[in-house]
């Protein structure tokens, strides 16, 4: 996915198969590319180290923390190359990696579930007094992510060995790590042991509130707020808003309003994020009139809307067929209140008009977005119009213009959803030759199509007796299954 910016634009319908396009190389990491070119995929970390040590071109590179950081970023999903390149950098005279780079390598090894390697690196860091609480946080997180939560706890127990303290901050890191991996019950049991000699703070309880909500035990989250109060910690907007969001996800709006009243009774005034969440879920539930009343509730407590709230309001008005009011929000109300729209604001209103088959209005707002000096369109800005083109049967000049604007005018790369939409839509429109060219560009850009997309295209290609293309698709599908 990362390579797309460097490669040819997608075929948009006005070039013939085999035509070449100019490739613009936007890559500036020339020094990093020298290292990448010397490493063969699948080699061991020792082979990577030796290949770099024996190459004269690598000897001429200037090794800095910035350089090593960029190398590790490029190898973030390849632990052997990352470790080998790190060892090579370590071997260079007058260079010693910073503790932050060690932490980054620890994270890469943990992410790839190389726990013994991670442990070994941790011991090496300990010998050089490089371990910080940030290191421990990464180690605990990776153990928990690998379902080795007992190892995460053991790492916390060894804090003293690394010269670090068991205190509220480090306890919270452990609890947060466990809760984020849905081990809330285990975190709770550990907390009951630790709280005897480590005092909790408001963040401790907020960690549990998030954790209980994450595992859909919202009542436990609510009782955590009561426990929080009992220990002299005041719940904040985040505490309440987390639970409100969980009740919203359950469409339990009675509880939402009860909690809003409780918040205000406690002197904890809801903010615009809280109200935006409520409006979005009311709209999702189809309660449009109730959603629009949120604006008045906000005004009654002096809470001012921001861009995200207005985006949600425009969406709600669009869903309730109030297109003129939605337009007024963007053109009148937002400027009057000094709130700047963003690309998502225009995406929302473009999608709204497309949903109601008002193509000209959608294009008008797209032109406003394209000409704005403050923000630019993204692929998602065009997606509703692409869908509309297929819906109303405009699969010739209109569709070609949209795609040319995306790729050539604004230099945007189509994403997986856009490619799938195009291939499926063109197949339905009996234009599978064009669909196949788009499929080819997609594969060339290393964007893997969904299996269903391949299957749909294959059926259409066979009906057109495009045997060579069908063979290529079938081979690709076999590779997908084997992977």
From TrEMBL:
PPR repeat placement: 201-235, 236-270, 271-305, 306-341, 415-449
Top-level taxonomic group: Eukaryota
Pfam families, per database record: PPR (PF01535), PPR_1 (PF12854), PPR_2 (PF13041)
Name listed for the protein in its UniProt record: Pentacotripeptide-repeat region of PRORP domain-containing protein
Record lineage: Eukaryota, Viridiplantae, Streptophyta, Embryophyta, Tracheophyta
PROSITE patterns: PPR (PS51375)
Transmembrane segments: none
Listed Gene3D superfamilies: Tetratricopeptide repeat domain
Keywords noted in UniProt: Repeat
Annotated InterPro entries: PPR_P_subfamily, PPR_rpt, TPR-like_helical_dom_sf
Similarity annotation: Belongs to the PPR family. P subfamily.
């Amino acid at each position: 996915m990362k390579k797309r910016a460097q490669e040819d634009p997608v075929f948009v319908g006005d070039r013939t198969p085999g035509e070449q396009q100019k490739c613009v190389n936007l890559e500036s990491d020339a020094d990093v590319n020298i290292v990448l070119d010397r490493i063969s995929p699948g080699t061991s970390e020792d082979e990577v180290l030796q290949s770099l040590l024996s190459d004269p071109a690598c000897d001429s590179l200037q090794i800095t923390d910035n350089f090593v950081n960029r190398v590790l970023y490029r190898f973030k999903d390849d632990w052997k190359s990352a470790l080998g390149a790190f060892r090579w950098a370590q071997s260079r005279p007058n260079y010693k990696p910073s503790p932050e780079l060690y932490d980054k390598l620890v994270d890469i090894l943990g992410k790839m579930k190389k726990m013994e390697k991670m442990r070994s690196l941790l011991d090496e860091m300990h010998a050089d007094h490089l371990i910080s609480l940030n290191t421990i946080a990464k180690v605990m997180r990776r153990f928990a992510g690998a379902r080795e939560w007992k190892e995460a706890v053991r790492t916390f127990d060894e804090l003293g060995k690394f010269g670090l303290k068991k205190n509220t901050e480090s306890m919270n890191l452990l609890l947060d790590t466990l809760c984020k991996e849905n081990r809330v019950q285990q975190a709770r049991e550990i907390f009951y042991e630790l709280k005897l000699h480590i005092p909790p703070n408001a963040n401790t309880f907020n960690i549990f509130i998030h954790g209980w909500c994450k595992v859909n035990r919202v009542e436990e989250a609510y009782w955590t707020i009561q426990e929080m109060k009992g220990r002299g910690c005041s719940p904040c907007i985040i505490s309440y808003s987390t639970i409100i969001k969980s009740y919203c996800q359950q469409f339990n709006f009675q509880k939402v309003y009860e909690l809003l009243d409780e918040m205000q009774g406690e002197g904890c005034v809801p903010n615009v994020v809280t109200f935006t969440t409520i409006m979005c879920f009311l709209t999702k539930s189809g309660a449009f009139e109730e959603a629009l009343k949120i604006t008045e509730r906000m005004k009654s407590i002096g809470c001012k809307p921001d861009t995200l709230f207005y985006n949600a309001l425009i969406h709600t008005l669009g869903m309730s067929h109030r297109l003129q009011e939605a337009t007024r929000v963007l053109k009148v109300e937002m400027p009057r209140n000094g709130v700047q729209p963003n690309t998502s604001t225009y995406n929302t209103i473009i999608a709204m008009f497309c949903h109601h088959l008002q193509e000209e209005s959608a294009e008008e707002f797209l032109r406003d977005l394209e000409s704005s000096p403050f923000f630019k369109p993204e692929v998602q800005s065009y997606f509703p119009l692409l869908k509309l083109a297929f819906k109303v049967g405009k699969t010739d000049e209109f569709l070609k213009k949209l795609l040319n604007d995306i790729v050539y005018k604004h230099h945007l790369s189509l994403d997986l959803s856009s490619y799938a939409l195009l291939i499926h839509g063109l197949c339905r429109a009996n234009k599978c030759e064009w669909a196949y060219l788009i499929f080819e560009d997609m594969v060339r850009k290393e964007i893997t199509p969904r299996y269903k997309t391949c299957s749909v295209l294959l059926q259409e290609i066979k009906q057109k007796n495009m045997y060579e293309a069908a063979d290529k698709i079938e081979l690709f599908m076999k590779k997908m299954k084997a992977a």
